[in-house]
Design brief:
With 366 residues, the chain is mainly β. It is built from 1 helix and 29 strands.
Length: 366
């Protein structure tokens, strides 16, 4: 071929490049190109184009071209024409599969999980394997490469699947999205309780929050008379839990009906003191609590307060406080420690103010 090279015309050597069927029996196109040059990808015949490039059977698509006697696909971006005649053969690889995505459920409660399953189908089902990539809200999930995904995270899920046959891999096929939601706890306003504590429970799963020990007070159901016994019971001032009623002995009218106290061995307590008690209500061994160190029973979070407690080493009474992430605390269930401190400070302030007034009167009243 005669071509311009600067100001001179030179004969350039060209070689033939043939695009042929995979069996090398039929030529789709033939070009004459300069050795060492790239082949423009637009010169390659297209599947179902004018050149009659037709897939050999269902499930295949034109994957590219390979030099005769070579094993790697021709790279139009970097491979160059050799010095002699070159033949490129059509390579047929698996087409993209069809994929559907399902979930065993699309809404769960806190701590529940979803199982998503990808189903891939291909005309060459027995000849191909599949590669899976999972996505949540458009972001790839690292390490998830199987046809199932188990997760407890809400979001919009998709899966991309490729068919693989030998060294050839199809383009990706993406599923439709499946949206999964997680419902949060719904705590009822009504208190739940047992013999020791009370709490609020989630109406869906029963998860407990605001758990604290009862704060009992005595309630008289029936006053005792000289001839008839009465009754009373302990009732939590927070949740209303009631203990079984106990008898109040008759007061009697003379020495033959006098009552001898029988103090029980079980400690009774309020927020400040503990004591032993007779069934008539008389108290003995009254003493202030001896508390141990505070112990965190529920760590606070950004959206929920926590709690801590300390226990009297004598009677076992528990004082409970709520705590926040900032470290502030507030008493619960009858703990009067902070209230006592406030009253002490108030009395001291009042005494100081009174002293100041008396001094001024003495000084200026002369």
């Amino acid at each position: 071929m005669l071509a311009a090279d600067g100001t001179e015309l030179k004969w350039l050597e060209l070689v033939s490049v043939l695009f042929k069927t995979s069996d090398n029996n039929h030529t789709y196109k033939k070009y004459y190109l300069r050795p060492g040059s790239l082949i423009d990808s637009s010169l390659a015949p297209l599947e179902n184009g004018q050149e009659g490039v037709v897939r050999p059977e269902e499930g295949y698509t034109l994957a590219g071209w390979v030099g005769y006697g070579q094993s790697e696909l021709w790279d139009f971006a970097k491979d160059t024409v050799p010095d002699g005649t070159m033949t490129l053969l059509a390579v047929w690889g698996p087409e993209a599969p069809k994929v559907t995505l399902t979930a065993d459920k699309t809404s769960v409660h806190v701590k529940g999980s979803f199982t998503l399953t990808a189903k891939a189908e291909h005309p060459l089902q027995k000849l191909v394997t599949y590669q899976y990539e999972w996505y949540r809200d458009g972001q790839k999930i690292a390490g998830e490469v199987k046809d199932t995904l188990v997760t407890d995270a809400p979001g919009s899920y998709t899966v991309q699947v490729k068919a693989v046959k030998g060294k050839l891999t199809s383009t990706s096929a993406a599923s439709s999205a499946v949206v999964c939601t997680v419902t949060q706890h719904e705590y009822a306003a009504e208190w739940k309780s047992d013999g020791t504590n009370h709490w609020h429970a989630c109406s869906v799963c029963g998860e407990k929050t605001d758990m604290a020990a009862h704060s009992f007070k005595w309630i008289t159901d029936k006053e005792a008379s000289s001839s008839e016994a009465g009754s009373r019971h302990e009732e939590c001032s927070v949740c209303g839990y009631k203990k079984a009623a106990v008898e109040i002995p008759a007061t009697g009218g003379g020495s033959s009906h006098s009552h001898s106290h029988g103090f029980g061995t079980e400690w009774k307590a309020d927020a400040e003191n503990h004591w032993h008690e007779c069934r008539c209500g008389a108290k003995t061994d009254i003493a202030a609590h001896t508390f141990g160190k505070w112990k965190i029973t529920k760590a606070p979070t950004a959206v929920r307060v926590g709690s801590r407690e300390r226990t009297c080493t004598v009677c076992g009474y528990k004082a409970v406080e709520t705590i926040t992430l900032s470290g502030t605390a507030s008493p619960q269930t009858g703990d009067a420690s902070d209230i006592g401190l406030f009253m002490s400070l108030l009395l001291l302030s009042s005494a100081g103010l009174a002293g100041t007034v008396i001094y001024r009167r003495k000084k200026y009243g002369k």
